[in-house]
Amino acid sequence: MSIVDQVSRVATVSSTIVINQGLSLRAPVVLNNGEQTKSQVTNISSNADAGPLLSQHALPGQLVTLNLADSHSLFNLLPVLPGLSNSPLVINVAYFNLTEALAPRSVVPFILHSSTPQQVYDHTLLASRLASRASRSVLHLFPSSTPASPIQQLDDTAIDALTKPATEKATSQTDLEYYDAAVTETSAATGRSLQPVSFAGAAESSPRTVFVTLGAQSAIRDAVLSDPSLHLVEVSLLRPFPATSFNQQISPSVTKVIVLEPIYKQPIKWTPLYLDVVGALQDREPRPAVKSAVLGSLPASSSDVASSLSKLSEDLEQQSSTSVRPVLGQLPSSEDSGVPSTISVPKHEGSYTKLLEHLFHERLEVLNDPSLVSQLGDVATRPEFALGRARALVADRDSLIEAVNDLLDAAGSAAVVSKELHDSLTKWLTNKDDPRLSEKIGKEIVESLEKHPPAHPSTARILELKQHFPATSRWIIGSDAWSYDLGASGLHHLISSSLNVNILLIDNTPYTTRSEVDPSKRKKDAGLYAMNYGEVFVGSIAVYSSYSQSLQALMEADKFKGPSVVLAYLPYETENTPALTVLKETKLAIDTGYWPLYRWNPAREDEPFFLESEAVKADLQEFLDRQNHLSQLTKSKPELATELVSSLGTKLQEARKGKAKQAYADLLNSMEGPPLLVVFASDGGNAEKLAKRLVNRAKARGVAARLAVMDSVPLDELKQEQHVAFVTSTAGQGEAPQNGRDTFRALNAAAARGDHLFAGTSIKYSVFGMGDSHYWPRPEDAGYYNKPAKDLDARLELLGAERVAGLGLGDDQDADGPQTGYKLWEPTLWKALGVDSVEVLEAEPEPITNENIKIASNYLRGTIAEGLKDTSTGALSASDGQLTKFHGIYEQDDRDIRDERKDSGLEPAYSFMIRVRMPGGVCDPKQWLAMDRIADEHGNSTFKLTTRQTFQFHGVIKRHLKPAIQDINKALLDTIAACGDVNRNVLCSSLPDLSHLHAQVYEYSKSISEHLLPSTTAYHEIWLDKKLVAGDAVKDHEPLYGAYYLPRKFKIAIAVPPTNDVDVFANDVGLIAIADDKGNLAGFNVTAGGGMGVTHSNKKTYPRTGDVLGFCTPDQAHLVAEKIMLTQRDNGNRADRKNARLKYTIDRMGLDNFKAEVEQRLGWQLAPARPFEFTSNIDKFGWTTGHNGKHHFTIFIENGRVQDEPGKEFKTGLQEIAKVHRGTFRLTANQHLILADVDDADLPEMKRLLSKYGLDNLSYSGLRLSSSACVAFPTCGLAMAESERYLPILIDKVEAICEENGLRNDSIVMRMTGCPNGCARPYIAEIAFVGKAPGSYLMLLGGGYHGQRLNKIYRENVTEPEILAILRPMIKRYALERHEGEHFGDFVIRAGYISATKSGKEWYDGMGGEGENRARS
After folding, report:
1. Which of 1049, 1129, 1190, 1211 is catalytic?
2. How far is CA 1036 from CA 557, 978, 1033, 1080, 1130, in A?
3. Residue 1380 CA to its chain's centroid (Å)
4. Helix, strand or coil, per DSSP, at residue 1074
5. Which of 82, 550, 551, 1274 could form a disulfide with 541 if both were Cys (CB 3.0 to 4.6 A apart)?
6. Hey, which residues does 112 pair with through a beta bridge?
7. Catalytic choice (325, 944, 1051, 1143)
8. Distances (CA, A) of 1232 to 942, 1222, 1325
9. pLDDT digits (tens, 9 = 90+) for 86-109
């Protein structure tokens, strides 16, 4: 544990608030008893200002600790520290530069200094004790180079007891008295003596010279002990300086005092400790001479140190008062001193510096580049210095232009300037601002002048300034700290200077910590400030939100003739903040409108302002539409204004009448039975359904029952209720559901305050919870089971409410699921209400299911068309949300900002996912360009290549739905049946090297898809505005599906051995192509019953691989697929959607019976299956040539996400390729892309474009090339954990393990999904992770490398550290013990980690590992 970690631990245990600045993010400190500390820990970046946080949290009785990794940050605190001197505050500083560290010495009551690891630890304890007991601020300094070494530490209980705030504060004590008391108590707790001043020297000696140092200096201590003429005084308390104690250590024989301080750059004449020593000795007679020297690096030998001390003493005797201070030892180099030789660019900010480098290449000139520090010192990075450099460079270029003009003026004489040189000079003046031509022509001019210099004075001047010929792009890069004082930062001077210089201000304040600011010290809006000047380009960008907008803004800033200010958002706290966190924080800021994206370009006189934040634009457009609509109506028809206003009164009267009738009905109802409020908290909808059922059953017993969402009922209103029934489900790791968390927080806060909120009220309550006792199977996780319900029940009782019916718990593991516990709980509630004897004769209404929605939809119409016109919400109705799936559309919302919008009183940020139907995954370049354009115009500017070989768009808002689908259809594609309870997109092997066979199976994939397409015209009516002929005279029908359609989704795939890239066994129907002797298609082996979806901990659900039924000819394939689908239609389980897939139908009927019914429908029997062999289910990357001579290149697109990001402009690159490509694009089922059918003549251009945009980079590890992930957060409503955004991060760490063991190029199939539905087909991967809660996954092992065998659950709950701890020895053993050609999935079975899964129904057998590898239960 480093010394900083030890300091942080003490701070976290002892403090209420801990702020770490510039330190690495650390896991929460765990106390000795296994609990986490209750301190609030905030991590901020090194260039942030901690002052506002200190001002906000510095409260009486609340110890605040600030840990600084660099003393330079203290300068930002100087304005606030005087006001915090009487607050319990500790500032621990690991300093590089003691001068900086002592800057606050006049405004902090106490300053401690430490030198050894043990002293650092003890003084950290002392500082916490002193600050909490004296309610004063304490500055604790120690060198950043302090080595880590074993020290004696207190346990957490002792630390807490030592630093606990005093109940009563003595007001008459001086600062030294407070210090003495704290030292006594800390010494007693640690068993070590702590002194403000320590003495070292030979006993009974009469020293002549005393050396004074800061803290313990063991090397000097050893040296003075051997010389009776020398003594050492070590000072640990700098403020208040202990003058009395110090004087006591100075012997009367002393004639000289030498003050040694490690201050290498002396900004003032007298150093702080020197002045304190002089002040302490001024009344002493005779007064010894006081000298000052620098303490450098000391020799290892004590005798060498003694010699150095003697020499130093002699040098000081001969030194004049104006001489430079002598040095004891050697001055450290910049490398050894701990002072960085250059100021480094923070890792995350490299995203923007790389952008600048990418755009401007050699033209880029960063005026405050950290590399200049080594030549010019720290001043090189300051804004005023950068602006001064800019002025000088601009002036030099102006001088060059003037010199060129002077030389041209002399062109009248041919002897002076040749025609060629004259032309070059003229061209350069015309193109001096052109990035390419200015440099090219400049080189020609220089060459000409050097070879044949004209006899003119301007020649020498031009050659002197030749480096200014190219048009450079000058940038000053600064942090958001510059926005606090626009004048001091140089921003004002730049704006008002009219210089052609660009400034990039990086704001790294995370959105979630935006409110932690001091109201008296707010950042100014630099963008608005700059726009007020008019002739300034202003841009606001966020590279993690819109890469293309960032590029555009930076390029426009460069082209603008004048000052440019670009505000760049990059939210991070420390260097180790994960990129995923930066992405999430950016999304929150952009989508909530906190950080708007815009460009202000005065050069565009017609429309200088461009607003590019979709969220802000949508809100603004809605407001303008509403305002414009009303304005146009009232202007065209003035009488309408009066009518609109008067109609308000009429509507109000009608509303009041309706409310009165409802109130009267409620009154009559309440007179018959007791009142009951049923409140629910539900994420998935199950608790909500149960609560609604409870209300209906209560009303049937005459109870005046009402239903409410938990968070919609304030606690003050809850106090007025008589009977309340709470129904709650369980989310994540024992967390409350989303719509109940505010209530839980409020109850917990009231309990923490000791309030008896419900005491004396009439409220009587009962709680029913829904959970899964096996969801978190480890014994230590048992507390997560139904935790929200248990906590709610206990909190209500603690706050004074009366429990009238015991806690009810529903368990998914019970035979009847939660109903088992519910049936026991409900009668107790009726008994408490006194209605248990009421006989209910009326039948309870059946709940509305998907089957009801489908039959009532009028062949998938529902009220979708009406819902699209409703602009009051961004969503569709729940029933329409189910129906739109059949149209290829899923309703979603941005889960990253769901809480923020809820807190703001807004509905979720609804958007829609659109999935294209594209059988076989083949499209032409025009279609690719259309998809690219649709993503930009209607979606979130990215699109996904899915595991179903098609395109998927996200972030499409409701008003863009119809235009997007119309544009898809214009590209000769559609979205019908891409989702829903129908046959979905038919997969087909991509086969880059078997072009002739691919052409055949691809045609069959299209014909099967068309054959099984729904017949309803609803799709064309709703989305393409094609009305039915003769109104309702022609009725819709579904010859294949019927009005109910299928019980569940239905998937078909066609594979061509030896490649199983479509995972044919994971589909409801699989067709395995069998080639004849000539390599042509002979027919298909038919499989049935594959499927991936599972419900966590529900053993009635399981994944399954398909069974081979037999063989059919090519012309029979579509009929076989149809009859299998119809058998499923008529025999599938429509009562339970979790058991409705074909896999369960086959297991329920039996494979032979199922096959017999299919053959009966066919009218003939399937032939016996023919031999085949699969060797892989991953893609083959790189170039290959097909049998027809055409070339194909398989491109790695990680997890299928097509987007532009720094260093990976894949979206732009593929767009450029599509513009010139004359072949096709093939999407693979592994989420990658094949550039197909490239002619020989086009091959060089394709290779050039692939190389230009990095699309030919195949130097990835075998693990990464074999990986796949579903979308998950933030858009998928079913996601329980991250997937697409997290898997690349996990692979970074796992592939490092693979490389350690020589397995970099070995393919291991790893897949991840955010929920158990299995979109990325995780259950046949060799290693798989399935999300259970944020950061927690199900871990599976043992899948077949060819996609032929299911894997099995190895661990039911793992986090990243556990994943790496499991895989590290496993991968090492695989590298050492594997057989020739043995794949990882086969090895873990042979090595005894897990048993093989032989069928879906046996999937749970042997879960948890085998033998010694079995998980502890």
Report:
1. 1049
2. 58, 20, 10, 41, 21
3. 41
4. strand
5. 550
6. 140, 237
7. 1051
8. 15, 20, 17
9. 899 999 999 877 877 888 888 899
Instruction: Confirm if 556 and 601 have CB atoms less than 8 A apart.
Output: yes
Dihedrals φ, ψ of 1120, to 5°?
-60, -45
Closest C-alpha to 325, from 334, 313, 316, 337: 316
Within a 10 A sphere around the Cβ of 1156, how many other Cβ atoms? 13
The number of residues in the chain equals 1417
| Chain center to CA of 639 | 55
Q: Give the pLDDT of residue 265.
A: 66
Query: Of these residues, 979, 988, 1112, 1276, which one is catalytic?
Result: 1276
Phi-psi region of 286 (alpha: psi -120 to 50; beta: other; left: phi over 0): beta
Rounded to whole angstroms, the Cα distance separating 670 from 672 reads 5
861, 1129, 1315, 1332: the active-site residue: 1315
Q: Is 1112 a catalytic residue?
A: no
- Strands 17-21 and 40-44, bridge-based pairing: parallel
Cα dihedral 632/638/644/649 (nearest 10):
160
Low-confidence ranges of the chain (pLDDT < 50): 25-28, 30, 33-34, 322, 334-342, 486-488, 518-522, 644-648, 670-671, 1029-1033
Element (H, E) at 222: helix 218-225
The amino acid occupying position 918 is: M
Per DSSP, the three-state class of 956 is: strand
pLDDT at 374: 65
Q: Nearest CA to 1228 among 1012, 980, 1001, 951?
A: 951
Q: Can you give the pLDDT at residue 335?
A: 40
Catalytic residue among 861, 984, 1180, 1352: 984
Residue 635, pLDDT score: 54
Verify whether residue 979 is a known catalytic residue.
Answer: no
Q: Residue 869: enclosing H or E segment and its boundaries?
A: helix 864-869
Instruction: Output the pLDDT for position 1343.
Output: 96
Residue 507 burial (C-beta neighbours within 10 Å; 0-12, 13-18, 19+): buried
Instruction: Look at residue 1002 in the predicted model and tell me its pLDDT.
Output: 92
The number of angstroms, rounded, from the C-alpha of 334 to the middle of its chain's C-alpha atoms is: 37
Could you give the CA distance from residue 82 to residue 58 in angstroms, rounded to a whole number? Answer: 12
Residue type for position 957: I
Burial class (CB in 10 A: 0-12, 13-18, 19+), 771: buried
Contacts of 283 by beta carbon, 8 Å cutoff, 6+ apart: none
**Token duo for residue 719:** 């106090």
| Model pLDDT, residue 662 | 59
> Is 1049 among the residues known to form the active site?
yes
Annotate 560-578 with b (16+ C-beta within 10 A) or e (fewer): bebbbbbbbbbbbbbbebe
890 DSSP 8-state letter? E
Give the number of C-alpha atoms closer than 13 A to the C-alpha of residue 1099, restricted to the C-beta side: 13
Q: Is 1051 a catalytic residue?
A: yes
Which residues make beta-bridge pairs with 1107? 1088
Q: Is 1366 helix (H, G, I), strand (E, B) or coil?
A: helix
Query: Looking at 1319, 1321, 1352, 1355, which residue is catalytic?
Result: 1319
Q: Which of 915, 1190, 1311, 1349 is catalytic?
A: 915
Predicted TM-score of the model (pTM): 0.69
